[in-house]
Amino acid sequence: MRSRAEWVLRVAAVGLLAWALWGALRPARSAAVSSVDAGSLRAALARWSSAAPPTAVHVTLGGGDVLPGYARQWLMAFRRDGVGVTWGQPLETSVAPLVASALEAEAVADPRGGTRVRVAAPGGAGVVVRDALGPLDSVRVGPRAQGATVMIPASLRTIDGVVGSTPARGAVVDSLTLRHVLVLGRAGWESKFIVRSLEEEGWPVDVHLAVAPRNDVVEGKPTAIDTALYAAVIAIDSSVAPVAPRIATYVRSGGGLVVVGSAAQVFHELDSGAPGVRVRDDEGAPSDTAPRRSLGLMPVTQLAVDAVVLERRGDLVAVAARRVGTGRVVQVGYDDTWRWRMAGGDSSATRHRAWWAAVVSSVAYAPRSERPVPADVDVAPLAHLVDALGAPTAPAASTAFARRLDIDPLRSPWIFGVLLLALLVEWASRRLRGRR
Amino acid sequence: MSEFVFATAKYDSGDWDASPLVPANIIDSVARYTEIDVAPQGVVVPLSSAEMLEYPLLYVTGHLPLRFTDAERRNVQKYLDRGGMMFVDDHNHDIKGVFHKTATEEITRTAGRLVDLPNAHELYTCFFKFPDGPPNTSHELNGWGDNLIHSHLQAVTRAGSNRIEVLYSSKDYSSEWGYHPDSKRFNQVDNTKFGVNIIVYALTR
Question: What's the pLDDT at A37?
């Protein structure tokens, strides 16, 4: 019986030594499970790459932390090498959860520059748009909306959109080439002040205004109506009829067209709808709160199937747009917007200018040149994270699971203690065998 | 689209209504030579009223001192800032006269410094061609008033461009154009053509 027990102890000791020997000879692993937060991840990745990687990694992201692209790629490389990689957030309620969001930024076709930022976010979420210097604008997504659009009056290279506390970073990847705007129509206050506003906005404007038979006022060099020359054509009234076929060809090849008031009578195939009976202005001065309410209006009626209403006045459609071929056409029902600029409130000149610039920008043809995407762009951080590393897991469960599976025989004090105890008992048993 | 309405400015000081026949005569010429939609009747608008902002070209004339009230000055500054244009004509044709002295002071104070307008300016070519600059008036040629033939008009131009905000004339076009339109047929040369240029310029620049 005693010799059998000693034999068992010897076998146990030899078995443990063999296990330790195997542990020493097998490919090294630094730690069984490593749990790191976002702040220390970069250093940990560098350490694991130059020494032994752990068998499993759990990345804990605090509120407002997202994994940069390089870190995701690095962790995916570890995963392909057999390292278990998981991520999650602390269970504390004080940590804001990552929000599913996405960001898109594009340059606006406007001489003063400008960036249109579209952010996809859950309804009711707060969105802050910022650049490297700080916040630029903020907006709250409507309860039933799926995102928001923010116009930034500056040309930006990269831009951040923070939804809740989840930051996304987008980049403007195109640079635009802006051409001239051509204004056609009869001489009048509307044409004059549209030209004036666009020039103040920075657009180079060519003008061809009819004053008398064989005596037009021409500014610039309005030659062929072509996308190689013009970003947009503005047709002020029906006097553009003789060149309407050329304008239609220009639009179908990608050009932008703004049809104002009675000019809609000559662009049947391009219009968003038919021009209705003119509603006279109310002869009141345009107010700052609703400046276009008191302007003369030739409403857009019988809307085309693919037309999009951009602005209404009561039940009447005031501005509508549609695509024709590869170009865009916006139909403006107002025909006396100059009254807004001249007789409106204190900010009327500025707002009139901005409104017309926005109308032209919405249709302007602007050839794009691609620019390289900055490395730190992450337009949808949560989506990219789930795509790379899977769904989040609870940190305690994952590490405990890994800990149960992976015990290092060379470093475990329990193994050493059992081995030492087995040898000691076996040795003591043999030494005390003849004693009474 | 609204039509062009010839507007005469009414100001508190002086005789703003010294040339009542000029509007009808110029309206007649605009209708005669151009396709511009023009209202058959002119209007009179007080410079002290916001109503002036509805008329982006204003005709100002008189013999007596021109002094803006505070309200008039504020309105004129707002008007010019937004793109309005004023044509101011000295009905005295006398650079030592009270209208000239006070009007040039008031314009300088309200809008900026008047400078000679180059005779190659597009004002002189935008419709009818006046290669020698502003046409002379019979008062100048007859030696009346200051006994000068003014070779240039003066103007305040918009900062950074050559666009006219205030056009100032010492040539007394108010007398030259102050006759009934029906009498135009007796003229060998229609002397209101330059008035058409002013209106075409205002409507297109």
Answer: 85
Q: Domain limits of chain B?
A: 7-204
Q: Is the pLDDT of residue A40 over 80?
A: yes
Give B144 to chain A, closest Cα distance, Å.
36
| Inter-chain CB pairs, A–B, below 8 Å | 84
- Write the pLDDT tens digit of every residue in B4-40: 999 999 999 989 999 999 999 999 999 999 999 999 9
CA gap A175, A315 in Å, rounded: 39
Q: Which residue of A has its CA nearest to B53?
A: A343
Q: Which residues have CB under 8 Å from A273's CB, separation 6+?
A: A264, A300, A301, A302, A303, A304, A307, A317, A320, A331
Burial of A32 (C-beta count, 10 Å sphere; 0-12/13-18/19+) = middle
Q: What angle do CA B64, B69, B70 make, to 5 degrees?
A: 155
Under the phi-then-psi rule, with left for phi > 0, alpha for psi from -120 to 50, and beta for the rest, what region is A220? left
Rounded to two decimals, the ipTM of the complex is 0.95
**pLDDT of A216 higher than 80:** yes
Q: State both tokens at B138.
A: 């019979």
The verdict on A234 touching B (C-beta cutoff 8 Å) is: no
B34, B53, B204: residue with CB nearest A342: B53
Cα R_g (chain B), whole angstroms: 16
Whether this prediction's pTM lies above 0.90 is answered by no
Domains of chain A: 2-94+387-431 (no CATH), 102-175+371-379 (2.60.40), 178-365 (3.40.50.880)
> Do the chains contact at B127 and A211, CB–CB below 8 Å?
yes
B35 vs A348: CB contact, 8 Å cut-off?
A: no
Q: Is the pLDDT of residue A397 over 60?
A: no
CA distance A189 to B69: 28
Q: Which residue of A has its CA nearest to B51?
A: A343
In whole angstroms, how far apart are CA A262 and each of A97, A244, A251, A295, A406? 55, 13, 19, 15, 80
Among the residue ranges A185-194, A366-375, B191-200, the one predicted with the least confidence is A366-375
The CATH number of the structural domain formed by B7-204 is 3.40.50.12140
Task: Name the residue among A192, A237, A342 with its Cβ closest to that of B203.
Answer: A192
Residue A409 has pLDDT above 70, yes or no: no
